[in-house]
What we know:
The chain contains two helices and no strands. The protein has helices at 2-23, 30-61. The relative contact order is 0.16.
Amino acid sequence: MITLLILFLTIIALLFLVQQLLKNTPEGKFLKSLRDLLVIVLALGISAGVFYVGFRLFRFLI
Length: 62
């Protein structure tokens, strides 16, 4: 149950991050764009980890 809560909060955080990046798009700043891209990749990696843990927990319980 706690894993599902973490998954839900991670998805909300990702949606907020994407919304903020679309709203505050840097103009011509390559390093800021690269930093934002790395933050997105990190967030997706964390989400994949949460999905994996949830899947393993689901398989363990069934």
